[in-house]
User: Fold this.
Amino acid sequence: MLKSPRLIFRHFFPADLNQLYQEIYSHPGVARALSPTGSLTFEQTTQILHRRLDHWQKHGFGVWALVYKQNQQLVGHCGLHYLGDTSEVELTYAINPFYWRQGLATEAASTVLRWGFDTLKLQQIVAVTSPENVASRCVMQKLGMKYEKNIEYAATEVVYYSLQSKTFKSETFKSESHLSEHSFD
Ligand SMILES: CC(C)(COP(=O)(O)OP(=O)(O)OC[C@H]1O[C@@H](n2cnc3c(N)ncnc32)[C@H](O)[C@@H]1OP(=O)(O)O)[C@@H](O)C(=O)NCCC(=O)NCCS
Assistant:
């Protein structure tokens, strides 16, 4: 398990399926980002959940369920998985729309990046999204990820961002030393 100030990261259970679909993946703003067709059925959500569980079993890392500490509700997903059939590791996230614009995606994703670089010892993490997904691109930029190119993924054009371990560590070091400077003010 991972933790951040407002979130607990745990594995998904089959029992999460109804809530994951009804409160998160069936929302058009989330489905548009997760599916090339722009919508997700309950069956497709079931398949996504199974693929996530398989990924954890095969590779020892994957996508976490996000639980909001204050009310113990499932509020989204965030984690790492292989990008299609490449050897690149992709950061993915989605938040229940009721909780948007509160910094939760940034909080979850920065915790996952730290896990990826420090614990999994990855050298690079990438992220892709549709060019129009302003919210997701904002999160990537806030995390220090750099836009590199447009690529075709799952038969659609996406923007491709990346972050190197050494860049993440030096940025984290700078922001932490900045915070500690302020704590002496
Ligand atoms: C992308 C998503 C996860 C962002 O979640 P969130 O918790 O609202 O994001 P944050 O609150 O951490 O916001 C991060 C930054 O993005 C900005 N932002 C968030 N949503 C925005 C929007 N719709 N338009 C413009 N900026 C936006 C925030 O203002 C913030 O920047 P700031 O701190 O400078 O103000 C959420 O919109 C979502 O679940 N979308 C559907 C799934 C998705 O797109 N996943 C990623 C692609 S696969």
